[in-house]
Amino acid sequence: MRAELIMVGTELLLGEIVDTNATFLARKLADLGIDVFYKSTVGDNLERVSRVLLEALGRSDIVIMSGGLGPTDDDLTREIVSEVTKRELVVDEGVLKEIEDWFAERYGHSAMPAHNRKQALFPSGSQIIPNPVGTAPGFCLDNDGKMVIALPGVSRELKAMFTASVAPILAKRSSGQVLVTRNLHFAGIGESSLEEILADLLSEQANPTLALYASGGTVRVRMAVKADTETA
Fold first, then answer.
1. What is the pLDDT of residues 38-54, one digit of tens each?
2. Strand, helix or coil at 68?
3. What residue segments make up the domains of the chain, in order of their start?
4. What is the value of pTM for the model shown?
5. 2-173 has which CATH code?
6. For the chain, is the Cβ count within 10 Å smaller at the N or the C terminus?
7. In this structure, are residues 89 and 78 in contact, taking their beta carbons and an 8 Å threshold?
Protein backbone atom coordinates (compact mmCIF):
# COMPACT_ATOMS: atom_id res chain seq x y z
CA MET A 1 0.00 0.00 0.00
CA ARG A 2 1.37 3.37 -1.08
CA ALA A 3 0.95 6.57 0.89
CA GLU A 4 1.79 10.17 0.08
CA LEU A 5 2.20 13.20 2.34
CA ILE A 6 1.13 16.74 1.45
CA MET A 7 2.28 19.37 3.90
CA VAL A 8 0.31 22.60 3.42
CA GLY A 9 1.50 25.99 4.61
CA THR A 10 3.39 28.96 3.20
CA GLU A 11 5.23 29.22 6.53
CA LEU A 12 6.92 25.89 5.73
CA LEU A 13 8.23 27.19 2.41
CA LEU A 14 9.51 30.36 4.04
CA GLY A 15 11.46 28.35 6.61
CA GLU A 16 9.58 29.95 9.47
CA ILE A 17 8.86 26.59 11.12
CA VAL A 18 10.48 23.16 10.95
CA ASP A 19 8.31 20.43 9.44
CA THR A 20 8.29 17.81 12.19
CA ASN A 21 4.90 16.48 11.08
CA ALA A 22 6.28 14.79 7.98
CA THR A 23 8.95 12.98 9.99
CA PHE A 24 6.38 11.81 12.54
CA LEU A 25 3.94 10.60 9.88
CA ALA A 26 6.59 8.82 7.83
CA ARG A 27 7.82 6.90 10.87
CA LYS A 28 4.32 5.95 11.98
CA LEU A 29 3.36 4.79 8.48
CA ALA A 30 6.52 2.69 8.30
CA ASP A 31 5.53 1.08 11.60
CA LEU A 32 2.24 0.11 9.94
CA GLY A 33 4.04 -1.39 6.93
CA ILE A 34 2.80 1.38 4.62
CA ASP A 35 5.26 2.71 2.04
CA VAL A 36 5.69 6.47 1.62
CA PHE A 37 6.95 7.22 -1.89
CA TYR A 38 6.28 10.96 -2.17
CA LYS A 39 6.13 14.04 0.06
CA SER A 40 5.15 17.50 -1.15
CA THR A 41 5.24 20.87 0.60
CA VAL A 42 2.85 23.43 -0.86
CA GLY A 43 1.98 27.00 0.09
CA ASP A 44 -1.51 28.20 0.92
CA ASN A 45 -2.68 28.42 -2.67
CA LEU A 46 -5.86 26.77 -3.91
CA GLU A 47 -4.66 26.05 -7.44
CA ARG A 48 -1.29 24.61 -6.45
CA VAL A 49 -2.58 22.44 -3.60
CA SER A 50 -5.40 21.16 -5.84
CA ARG A 51 -2.89 20.18 -8.51
CA VAL A 52 -0.68 18.35 -6.02
CA LEU A 53 -3.67 16.51 -4.53
CA LEU A 54 -4.84 15.38 -7.98
CA GLU A 55 -1.36 14.07 -8.76
CA ALA A 56 -1.18 12.28 -5.42
CA LEU A 57 -4.55 10.56 -5.91
CA GLY A 58 -3.36 9.36 -9.31
CA ARG A 59 -0.38 7.46 -7.90
CA SER A 60 -1.03 6.68 -4.23
CA ASP A 61 -3.60 4.70 -2.25
CA ILE A 62 -3.57 6.99 0.80
CA VAL A 63 -2.97 10.74 0.84
CA ILE A 64 -2.40 12.42 4.20
CA MET A 65 -2.62 16.20 4.26
CA SER A 66 -1.32 18.33 7.13
CA GLY A 67 -2.37 21.94 7.56
CA GLY A 68 -5.03 24.23 6.16
CA LEU A 69 -7.82 23.29 8.57
CA GLY A 70 -7.92 26.52 10.54
CA PRO A 71 -10.71 29.13 10.46
CA THR A 72 -9.07 31.82 8.31
CA ASP A 73 -9.46 32.54 4.60
CA ASP A 74 -6.09 31.02 3.69
CA ASP A 75 -7.01 27.68 5.32
CA LEU A 76 -8.11 25.92 2.16
CA THR A 77 -7.73 22.17 2.69
CA ARG A 78 -11.40 21.30 3.19
CA GLU A 79 -12.42 23.38 0.16
CA ILE A 80 -9.71 21.79 -1.99
CA VAL A 81 -10.63 18.22 -1.03
CA SER A 82 -14.29 19.05 -1.67
CA GLU A 83 -13.49 20.42 -5.13
CA VAL A 84 -11.09 17.66 -6.18
CA THR A 85 -13.35 14.82 -5.02
CA LYS A 86 -16.55 16.59 -6.08
CA ARG A 87 -18.02 16.18 -2.59
CA GLU A 88 -20.20 18.98 -1.25
CA LEU A 89 -19.14 20.66 1.99
CA VAL A 90 -21.71 20.10 4.73
CA VAL A 91 -21.95 21.37 8.30
CA ASP A 92 -21.70 18.79 11.06
CA GLU A 93 -23.95 20.20 13.78
CA GLY A 94 -22.36 18.06 16.48
CA VAL A 95 -18.89 19.37 15.68
CA LEU A 96 -20.22 22.93 15.47
CA LYS A 97 -21.67 22.64 18.98
CA GLU A 98 -18.38 21.24 20.28
CA ILE A 99 -16.51 24.25 18.87
CA GLU A 100 -19.08 26.67 20.33
CA ASP A 101 -18.78 24.94 23.71
CA TRP A 102 -14.97 25.08 23.50
CA PHE A 103 -15.06 28.86 23.11
CA ALA A 104 -17.80 29.31 25.70
CA GLU A 105 -15.83 27.41 28.33
CA ARG A 106 -12.75 29.55 27.77
CA TYR A 107 -14.05 32.97 26.78
CA GLY A 108 -17.72 33.18 27.78
CA HIS A 109 -21.01 32.55 26.01
CA SER A 110 -21.45 33.53 22.35
CA ALA A 111 -17.72 34.11 22.06
CA MET A 112 -17.09 31.90 19.02
CA PRO A 113 -15.96 34.03 16.05
CA ALA A 114 -18.11 33.50 12.98
CA HIS A 115 -15.10 32.30 10.99
CA ASN A 116 -14.72 29.27 13.26
CA ARG A 117 -17.97 27.86 11.86
CA LYS A 118 -15.81 26.90 8.89
CA GLN A 119 -14.13 24.25 11.03
CA ALA A 120 -17.40 22.31 11.20
CA LEU A 121 -17.52 21.91 7.41
CA PHE A 122 -16.59 18.54 5.90
CA PRO A 123 -16.80 16.94 2.45
CA SER A 124 -19.93 14.78 2.37
CA GLY A 125 -19.30 11.17 3.34
CA SER A 126 -16.31 12.02 5.52
CA GLN A 127 -15.45 10.24 8.73
CA ILE A 128 -14.66 12.95 11.26
CA ILE A 129 -11.39 12.67 13.18
CA PRO A 130 -11.84 14.24 16.63
CA ASN A 131 -9.31 16.76 17.87
CA PRO A 132 -8.89 16.30 21.64
CA VAL A 133 -6.54 19.28 22.05
CA GLY A 134 -7.81 21.94 19.64
CA THR A 135 -10.75 23.27 17.62
CA ALA A 136 -9.85 21.85 14.19
CA PRO A 137 -11.19 18.33 13.66
CA GLY A 138 -9.75 16.36 10.78
CA PHE A 139 -11.50 14.02 8.40
CA CYS A 140 -11.01 10.82 6.46
CA LEU A 141 -12.66 10.39 3.08
CA ASP A 142 -12.86 7.30 0.87
CA ASN A 143 -13.07 8.36 -2.76
CA ASP A 144 -12.98 5.91 -5.69
CA GLY A 145 -10.89 3.44 -3.74
CA LYS A 146 -8.44 6.08 -2.53
CA MET A 147 -8.31 7.55 0.97
CA VAL A 148 -7.73 11.21 1.79
CA ILE A 149 -6.91 12.06 5.40
CA ALA A 150 -6.76 15.71 6.47
CA LEU A 151 -5.13 16.71 9.76
CA PRO A 152 -4.28 20.09 11.29
CA GLY A 153 -0.78 21.48 10.96
CA VAL A 154 -0.33 22.09 14.70
CA SER A 155 2.09 19.32 15.64
CA ARG A 156 0.69 18.33 19.03
CA GLU A 157 -2.82 18.14 17.57
CA LEU A 158 -1.73 16.09 14.56
CA LYS A 159 0.20 13.62 16.70
CA ALA A 160 -2.65 13.13 19.16
CA MET A 161 -5.20 12.65 16.38
CA PHE A 162 -3.03 10.26 14.38
CA THR A 163 -2.30 8.09 17.38
CA ALA A 164 -5.87 7.95 18.66
CA SER A 165 -7.85 7.79 15.42
CA VAL A 166 -5.86 7.57 12.20
CA ALA A 167 -3.50 4.70 13.06
CA PRO A 168 -6.42 2.32 13.85
CA ILE A 169 -8.10 3.26 10.55
CA LEU A 170 -4.95 2.59 8.56
CA ALA A 171 -4.16 -0.62 10.44
CA LYS A 172 -7.42 -2.09 9.13
CA ARG A 173 -6.45 -1.28 5.53
CA SER A 174 -2.79 -2.24 5.64
CA SER A 175 -1.36 -5.66 4.83
CA GLY A 176 -0.69 -6.29 8.51
CA GLN A 177 3.05 -6.38 7.89
CA VAL A 178 5.54 -4.24 9.77
CA LEU A 179 8.73 -2.58 8.59
CA VAL A 180 11.73 -3.59 10.68
CA THR A 181 15.03 -1.76 10.35
CA ARG A 182 18.50 -2.47 11.67
CA ASN A 183 21.65 -0.36 11.32
CA LEU A 184 25.30 -1.35 10.98
CA HIS A 185 27.97 1.31 11.50
CA PHE A 186 31.37 1.12 9.76
CA ALA A 187 34.48 3.19 10.45
CA GLY A 188 37.74 3.34 8.52
CA ILE A 189 36.13 2.79 5.14
CA GLY A 190 34.56 5.24 2.71
CA GLU A 191 31.00 5.07 1.41
CA SER A 192 32.05 4.30 -2.17
CA SER A 193 34.43 1.52 -1.08
CA LEU A 194 31.74 -0.08 1.06
CA GLU A 195 29.30 0.19 -1.83
CA GLU A 196 31.71 -1.77 -4.05
CA ILE A 197 31.94 -4.54 -1.44
CA LEU A 198 28.15 -4.72 -1.14
CA ALA A 199 27.49 -4.27 -4.87
CA ASP A 200 25.86 -7.68 -5.38
CA LEU A 201 23.46 -7.17 -2.49
CA LEU A 202 22.64 -3.61 -3.50
CA SER A 203 21.88 -4.55 -7.12
CA GLU A 204 19.47 -7.36 -6.23
CA GLN A 205 17.28 -5.58 -3.71
CA ALA A 206 13.70 -6.58 -3.06
CA ASN A 207 12.99 -7.53 0.55
CA PRO A 208 15.10 -6.75 2.54
CA THR A 209 16.61 -3.54 1.19
CA LEU A 210 19.95 -1.90 1.98
CA ALA A 211 20.92 1.76 1.92
CA LEU A 212 24.21 3.52 2.71
CA TYR A 213 24.54 6.84 4.54
CA ALA A 214 27.83 8.66 5.22
CA SER A 215 28.03 10.91 8.28
CA GLY A 216 30.72 12.16 10.61
CA GLY A 217 33.51 9.84 9.48
CA THR A 218 31.40 6.68 9.59
CA VAL A 219 29.11 4.89 7.15
CA ARG A 220 25.75 3.55 8.25
CA VAL A 221 24.17 0.63 6.42
CA ARG A 222 20.44 0.50 7.00
CA MET A 223 18.72 -2.84 6.48
CA ALA A 224 14.94 -2.72 6.14
CA VAL A 225 12.62 -5.70 5.82
CA LYS A 226 8.87 -6.16 5.70
CA ALA A 227 7.62 -9.05 7.80
CA ASP A 228 4.46 -10.31 9.47
CA THR A 229 5.88 -9.53 12.91
CA GLU A 230 8.91 -7.70 14.24
CA THR A 231 10.46 -11.02 15.34
CA ALA A 232 9.65 -12.98 12.17
1. 999 999 999 999 999 99
2. coil
3. 2-173, 178-227
4. 0.82
5. 3.40.980.10
6. C
7. yes
